[in-house]
Amino acid sequence: MGFLSCFELWICYNAGMETKNLQDIYKWAWIVLIILAVFLGVRTLASLKDLQNTSPSYNTITVTGEGEVNALPDLATFSFTVSADANSVSTAQEEVTKKMDAVLLAVKSLGVEEKDIKTTDYSVYPRYSYTQMPCTQFSCPPGRQNLEGYTASHNVTVKVRKTDDAGKILAAAGEKGVTNLSGISFTIDDPEKLRSEARALAIKNAREKAGVLTNDLGVRLVRVVSYSDSFDGGVIPYYREALGMGGDSAVMPAKAPTLPTGENKVKVVVNVTYEIR
Description:
Layout: H1 3-53, E1 60-71, E2 75-86, H2 89-109, E3 117-131, E4 144-160, H3 166-175, E5 180-181, E6 185-187, H4 191-217, E7 221-231, E8 238-239, E9 244-245, E10 264-276
């Protein structure tokens, strides 16, 4: 091989090496560019998200409005208990069922519907007596517990939708021998309707206050920025004291009691923030 041939081979080898080096440089350059593009894309998305979460800057005023609605109760609720004592569980249950059937028949005859009568408790438990054993000179033996029988108890809650009839229904239940009549309450059957009315009045009150304030400040309302409301106490039931406790017909007199229903109140407070210009 001559001198020129060797020289030509050397040139070709160097040219091949330079081409390979350029390809490697291009490859790494592309990798760096891709990584840089991904990094910049992530940073851009994060910046856009922060920008979205940033609250816009504008002038606002916040006013409070109150609305109050009064209404006569349209629902009376009371509870009663029927109980019976017997020597066996089955007999006690039979007796309490007879008594309860008589009470429910009287209540339903005065217009109370089946859907407004609900059992809230039913139980049967043993009754014991305690005998103290005589003491000796040295000690007192423990007393003795004696099984006397069983007591069955059935508790029911009743809704009366004609509040004027509540007294008559209580009297009818008492005449049938209920063991206990708990306190009666007078409420609103649909309190959400009253809340809606009170809320509308509260919003109107807030808008009127905002109008006065903007006139004093020489600005105008643009839009509502935020709103919240709360109920001050809600519907407050009117309670009567416990109507009686005892047994048989001694619980209540035959004459229907007079039950003033009072008045229920719903109050709503709203907070409204307006943008102003």
